[in-house]
């Protein structure tokens, strides 16, 4: 509770480091997304070229129908793979950000605990109740945050499993139709 210039300087360093780490995560994620998009664009162009070539070589309606079914299945599998890749990039970024925030929260909790201990040592006699109330409030806040974090991880895990199951089911459903 007694801020010294060293504590302020340390807090500023920590905030700058966190901002730099978040920026790095954002740049890395953007780089992965742009690379993914460029690769998808190249594949799309190559697929369109191949489709036009195949269509120009088709001699009868039966060949056209079988080509259409093949193109549909191929297109769906490529869209599914692209969607999975996008989801993987987003999930990776979310995991990195969560780890960074949890680490910073742990450091903050440690700093608060240290400052409370210093305040206890310098506190006047009879302030035990106030200090106990502050400690209790901080413990409750930490427990609440831990609960929210645990719930968020469970929701993310459930969403991950649901998305993967939906994509797998969609892929499986389209294969027999082709």
Describe it for me?
- It is a single chain.
- This protein has 178 residues and is mainly alpha-helical.
- It has one domain.
- The protein is 93% helix and 0% strand.
- It has three helices and no strands.
- Helix 2 (61-122) runs antiparallel to helix 3.
- The longest helix has 62 residues, at 61-122.
- It is elongated and about 100 Å long.
- The termini are far apart.
Number of domains: 1
Q: Helix and strand succession?
A: HHH
Number of strands: 0
Helix percent reads over 70%
The outline comes out as elongated
How confident overall, as mean pLDDT? 83
Low-confidence stretches: none
SS summary, helix count: 3
Largest sheet: none
Backbone CA Rg: 28 Å
The percentage of residues in β strands lies in: under 5%
How would the blueprint of this fold be written?
Blueprint: H1 5-57, H2 61-122, H3 128-177
Helix pairs in contact: 1-2, 2-3
Summarize the structure.
The chain is mostly helical. Helices cover 93% and strands 0% of the residues. The chain has three helices and no strands.
Descriptive terms for the model:
mainly alpha; 0% strand; 3 helices; 178 residues
